[in-house]
Amino acid sequence: MLNDERLSADEAPTAHSVGPSSSSNNSSTTTAASAKDENEEHISSAAAPAVTTSAATDGTSNEADGGDDEGGDMDGGAQNPMYRVDSMFSPQILDTTNDASFPVVQDDVVHQPPADMKTLFSAPPRKGAYMTLIQDLLRPVAAAAVKADGTAASSPTSHGGSASSSSAASNYLTRDIAMDVCRDVTAVLTDEPSLLDVKIQEGETLVVVGDVHGQFHDMAHHVLNQQYEKPAGSKDRKFLFLGDYVDRGPQGVETILLLFALKIEYPDQIYLIRGNHEESQTSRIYGFLFEVRTKFNDLSVWARFNEVFCYIPLAAIVSAPGHRFFAVHGGLSPGLTDVDSIRSISRTDYGGMLDNTESDIVDGLLWSDPSDAVVRFSRNERGCGYLFGAAAATEFCEQNNLDFICRAHQMTMQGYTWAHNKKVLTVFSAPNYCGVSNNLASILLVTHEWELNFVQFAMAPNRQPIAPPASAFSSWSNYFQS
Ligand SMILES: [Mn+2]
């Protein structure tokens, strides 16, 4: 199939290591490389029966993909590229019942951002220059919420995600603004370590957010409302985003511009860590490149965003007195034993300049998945990172004095899933992922007293349609092969 060949070929020239697959698996190197992206977030594959088996163990089984059960002997190369492509559009319900000891609040209210973003946080904006941008970005969301209550919210078009926001888009989607944001957020991110320390102070609540994937309306309605609708008198919320801001969904540009602008203005309230889609070799294929080209008509903006992505911290330690957890997009790898070793990794060197050990660790941080079928580690069928088992998770938590590992990176039907005896939590914050998955999303709220609460939500009204399929921009992806 042409698509597969294109995707595979497109991966091959990148400098970035595809991890352990390259040496041990010659016969399927190409396939594995393509799998790295195609398996993305797995909307999981068609191999349902295998999953059912592992799901039975503790009721958590993340959708860790039909490939999980093959995880131990993946060298068999059981990769059928055709179903990988198809799996994007035929997701499967895999999990799950969740533990009742963690309260879940259903958020089925239509939230509306305030008219004046100057009041978004009580702290004064650090720079002030981006408050208008923040307001412009959120204004269409507020307008859409009003429409949704009335008769006719505009119906989604089937193609071209930016269409219905284009009138507002002209106000802020300019190359100059994007470049300014990139410059200023780089300065802020550079000051942060590769391993963030996020401390929840007395009276504070941290909001942990999984994959957003360009679902800007969902983020504005159901995530940021935690701040703009917080109880009167309570402290400002802190937000920790676990990566995958762009690709897949229709408004990766708006999502990343808003998050970067918020990071510039409120660096102590907004924390960002890097996902595997904040990487050029991924974001060129899964929608962001095409979206940037459509909205800016200038591919240098896409390249600039990807430069900035390299400055996003790789993971975080979230702590309150007596407790802490490790926050990361993907997960563990065999080389990562001391969590503090992440601090010394030069994150901007990832993709070619790191030594093998550190590169492998970063691969794992961005790409790994938990699996019930693995005791410690095996290769991830994504073609990058690892599958890590309960023993690996437990040992890592014990050695590093962690309550658990909180990560994103996989769609889960209830928006969150515990795995590995509650040592691994997956949070996914893109409802109805890709416009077809019918999954709920969630965010995790953590208080200073270490109360964990999930807020679960469905797709926001009047959300933009999904991005065009990969085939629509194959020529652009080919362009970058050279
Ligand atoms: Mn991911």
From TrEMBL:
Compositionally biased tracts (Low complexity): 21-34, 44-57
Residues covered by the Serine/threonine specific protein phosphatases domain: 273-278
EC number: 3.1.3.16
KW GTP-binding (keyword) present: no
SUPFAM superfamilies associated with the record: Metallo-dependent phosphatases (SSF56300)
Annotated PROSITE patterns: SER_THR_PHOSPHATASE
Keyword terms: Hydrolase
Sequence segments annotated as region (Disordered): 1-83
Gene3D superfamilies hit by this protein: 3.60.21.10
Catalyzed reaction equations: O-phospho-L-threonyl-[protein] + H2O = L-threonyl-[protein] + phosphate
Enzyme class: hydrolase
Domain of life: Eukaryota
One Pfam entry name: Metallophos
Protein name in the entry: Serine/threonine-protein phosphatase
Protein's organism: Bodo saltans (Flagellated protozoan)
